[in-house]
Design a protein that fits this description.
Layout (H helix, E strand, L loop, with lengths): L23 H8 L22 E5 L3 H10 L14 E6 L2 E6 L4 E5 L16 H14 L9 H9 L5
Length: 161
């Protein structure tokens, strides 16, 4: 998805390597001449390095499946193909999409950019292992403590559980 950033002192150019939106905070801080903050993702290229892994995590939206069971008596949340906690990991044109129940697929984005030809999840086992290692290194980060009212608000709309 394209993103355009424009302003005084922002050089023209195009970033062609895949990046993550989590890098926008540091990029904007860099462009504004603000100091670098510790423990946040680096700025987008060319101001910082491209990430080695692109990771997107989506926790199960329990509120949605609860609502679905209320409005549709025959809804089976366990049978829903999108229930569960899902992760997408991409590196050098290979992408795996998998959940915490062992379901998922591998895609070769170099030959299948539209993700129309799912391959067995086992073909992406190296990416899954890289994700697990990333999880272990990220586990040492300090947890964020939110005020109770903020946690309740975010929980009410499904962002946290």
């Amino acid at each position: 998805m394209p993103l355009l950033v424009s302003g005084p002192g922002v050089p023209s150019g195009e970033v062609t390597t895949p990046v993550q939106t989590v890098q926008l905070r540091a990029t904007l801080r860099t462009l504004l001449g603000l100091e670098t903050l510790p423990d946040i993702a680096p700025p987008l290229p060319p101001w910082g390095p491209a990430p080695s892994l692109l990771i997107s995590e989506r926790s199960e939206m329990q509120w949605y499946f609860g609502w679905l069971r209320e409005v549709k008596a025959d809804a089976d949340a366990d049978g829903d193909p999108w229930s569960g906690n899902w992760v997408a990991v991409e590196h050098e044109g290979l992408k795996v999409v998998f959940d915490d129940r062992g379901r998922g697929s591998t895609y070769d984005l170099r030959t299948d950019p539209g993700e129309d030809d799912p391959r067995p999840l086992s073909e992406g086992s190296a990416l899954i292992q890289a994700y697990r290692e990333w999880q272990q290194t990220s586990a040492g980060l300090e947890p964020v403590h939110l005020p109770v009212a903020t946690r309740q608000s975010l929980g009410g709309i499904g962002y946290i559980q």
